[in-house]
Amino acid sequence: MSLYLIGDVQGCDTALGDLLQKIDFSPSRDVAYFLGDLVNRGPASLAVLKRLMALGDAARCVLGNHDFHLLAASEGVRKPSAKDTFQDVLSAPKAIRQSVLGWLAQQPLARYEHQVLMVHAGVLPSWDVVQTLSLAKEVQEALSSSALPHFLRQMYGNLPNAWHEHLTGPDRLRVIVNALTRLRFCTPQGAMEFDSTESAASAPSGYVPWFEALNRQTANTTVAFGHWSRLGWLNRPDLISMDTGCVWGGHLSACEIGTENPRLYQVACKACKTPGLLS
Q1: Which residues have CB under 8 Å from 115's CB, separation 6+?
Q2: Is CATH 3.40.190.80 what the domain over 3-268 is classified as, yes or no?
Q3: Which residue ranges make up each domain of the chain?
């Protein structure tokens, strides 16, 4: 059995098919962990979701901010923008639409398998693995409840921008979602910043990349994430960064884990938006 981490697919189904073929992926033998942003910006979000569903337990995903955006749009909570490209999901026949969206809403925000903590964006400095998984589960329970539309209406916003144990209700869930699906920079104390999408070397004044915060409780754990295409591929004992900007003219990447020397596999994306422009 081979184990792979795969970065942000973002609706690029042809590139995903090429990548799975390149790694000789077999759902009866292998497992691929998809680090969120399965949909949007690329041309074939519906095809990506159907492909992943067909792989069954061989495809294990976490949710990203674009996946949440699709769920919100499907519930009428957010209007798709001119940049969104998941209309193929929203306009699919009802049975298909309900099936893929129901599957998407069942995916967690964090996984911990094979000694790797997997999220889409980042982990706040004060959270260890156990707390991260516990907080992610709180959001997953809201996603799978009958109160899904209400939860999605309350989910958006940048405040509170820091975690406190006493947070309750929508504020609590909003901080969890923002940290796990949107985080790039924070203060050393864990106050989040959401405006900058620059490289790690261009942190706003007073902020650091979340993984450089002192006393980070996951510093002794390997954290795998996507979301940050300007960061690109990064492989070190405590971090594996997997968003290599497929839809922006980069590559779709898979990293084999569980081996002494992790191997990176990449394919070009023929449906990229703007070659050379990462976001």
Answers
A1: 221, 222
A2: no
A3: 3-268
